[in-house]
Amino acid sequence: MDILLIAGLWLDGSAWNDVTPALEAHGHRPVPLTLPGQGDGSASAILDDQVRAVIAAVDQAVGEVTVVGHSAACTLAWLAADARPDKVAKVVLIGGFPSGDGQPYADFFEYLDGVMPFPGWDRFEGPDSADLDEPARDAFAAAAIPVPEAVTRGVVHLSDERRFDVPVLVVCPEFTPDQAREWIGAGDVPELAKAKHVDFVDIDSGHWPMVTKPTELARILAEAASIIAS
């Protein structure tokens, strides 16, 4: 099965470089995406450009597709399910949750000259980054791509309630499955509260398991896709 891989803020498709070989070994076709404004040189990109790029990748996939979103890009994965509920077989959310209709996409950090640069590791101290050593942190920060403000402040638009029929797997890195269930049950994640099929899996990592636990993450993603494919 084709597995679309969408990394979060400041990352391009190369974030999945250590994951894709393991997915191929499991018999799947990984498709890491580099989004407009996050690696393709489109400093003027808006959220709709990223959404269109994701939907185009779904349309180009062979047969049904699993769409994986990491962190803020969990919303992009969910938007793919909204746009193509008959084509997206499963949504996998890593370390994040989808924003709801009418909410800003990822208005989380400070802006500079029309972009949201990586804010530094002080903002991620604790479980988010505890498994990243200094060389890994330095490499991440050096490669981080400032995200256009028009992307992060773009408004999410959801329209097709068939998205709630698409199975969801929540991969829990810096938080636990029990915490995720609690947040959803408390109404903090309205989109997943309405989803009909939500499963959870733990991974012992910080916020970026594609960097620190790529083989284990690939196994989780492959198993998720194989359940659908079978």
Automatic annotation (TrEMBL):
Residues 3-219 form the AB hydrolase-1 domain. InterPro entries: AB_hydrolase_1, AB_hydrolase_fold. Pfam families: Abhydrolase_6. Transmembrane segments: none annotated. It comes from the Bacteria. This is Esterase. It comes from Phytohabitans aurantiacus.
